[in-house]
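Handout, section B. The chain below has 264 residues.
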Amino acid sequence: MKKVIFCCVLFSIVSCKSSNDKKIPNMEGTYFMSTQILNNGIKDTKYTDLKQLKMYTGSFYMYAQVNPSDSSSAFGVGSYSTNHDSGTVTETVIYRASDSIFQNDPTQYVLNVTLTSDGYQQIIPEIQMDSAKYKLTEDYQKTGDSTKTPMDGVWKETRSVVIKGADTSVNQRVQYKAYYGGYFMFGQYVKGTDSKYHTGIGFGTFKMKSDTELEETDLNSTYSVIAGHTFGVKIGMDGPDKYHQTILNGDGTTGIEYYERLKK
C-alpha cells in the first residue's frame, strides 16, 4: 500500500469526467487531503490516515505528505497553469522526493478535477502497481485564510549552514519551502549522519509577528522533535525575491538558511 500512495502523491496524475460546463477557477489556495479511496475493480478501500498538504500559489505549487504510521515522507514542487476552457490544470514537476528516492527531470501532467463545496476531488482511473490496476479517488478540503504576506510563494533554499561556536558546517541537502494563506510547508532531501539521503517534511501554520520575525507552528512532520511545536524565526529580506532565516536551535547551535523565490 505504501508504494501505491507514493505513486499517487509523487506524480499527481489526475483524470476524471469533464464537460464544457465544468470550468476550473483560480486554484490558488491551500488544501488538506482528507480521504483516499482505492478500488481494485471489486471493492473500495478507504484511507484517512495519510497527512498531506498542497499549495497552489502564483504560478507554482508544492505538496508535502507524511504517513504517521512509519513517518515515511514525500514532497514535490513544480509550476502549473490553468485552462479554463478545457477545465484542466497542467503541472510541470521540477523536483520530487520520497524516502530515499529523488527525481529532478521536468515532467508534465494534465489534471482534470471536480470542484466540491469545500475543495475539490481528483480521480486517477488507472494505476498499475505490482501487475495490478487500481482506481484512486482523493478528496481535498480548502483551508487557510485571505492573509497576504511578502512570504507567499514557493522558495528554493540556495545555502544552509549550522554555526556551533567558532565552527560552521554546510548542510548537504535540497530543500524547498512554501507559504500561503497562513500556512507553510517545507520538504528536504538531506544527507544524514549515516551518509545516506532521506526525505523529510513538515507543515503547519505561520504568522508574521513583524517585518523581521515569523512564528511557525508545525502540525505534522517527519521529525517528532518539531511536530506540534511553535518556533520563532528571524527573517531578513534580501530583495523582493530573496530572504534568509535564522533559527536558534535547542542544542545551542544557530541555523541560517538562504532562499530564492521560484519565478517563471
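Note. The longest helix spans residues 2-11. Compare this with the example in section A.
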